[in-house]
Amino acid sequence: MAIEHDYFGLLESGPDGSIFWSENVDFADQTVTVDLTAPDQDDVSADALDVAAAMISSLESIDLQARNAMVSELDDRTSEVTEFILQQQEALGEDIEDFLVDISGDQHVDVIRSLQLVSMTILADEHGGEDPFAVLEYALDPDETEDVLLVNLRSDGTVQSVTSAD
Q1: Cα→Cα distances 22→26, 39, 129, Å
Q2: DSSP H or E stretch at residue 47
Q3: Strand 116-123 relative to strand 30-38: parallel, antiparallel, unpaired?
Q4: What is the per-residue pLDDT across 57-70, written as a single tens digit (0 to 9) for each?
């Protein structure tokens, strides 16, 4: 069986009924891996695919919204964003400045500005549900795949939560 969509083309299901689509998307001056997945194609609606396509097409505004959500968590010393930044500062020491794209004097904000969007995973079967519909993965050093922040989005594009990968 398969699902056809204007943006994704023909999404064929595997023997277990799951679907998977992957593409590298140019974003700013980098490439972002975008994956769309669902364990059962019967749980994927045309609306879910339309929303997923719209999110990919508006990656720049979604990225800005995700970064603003990270900044808003800086007031909470126990937030995962603050903990992530403190961890990066401790691990990199003065070398952290090598990863910063701008040095404004507020290193916490500078780290958030300097995070690279590494990937976006769309869980197409979660459209309209309580679980995240899309997960954005950010890293200060894209070669360090364990030190990442994950921004979970609802299918309406709002930020549900920001968590670290540990």
Answers
A1: 13, 15, 22
A2: helix 46-57
A3: parallel
A4: 999 999 999 999 99
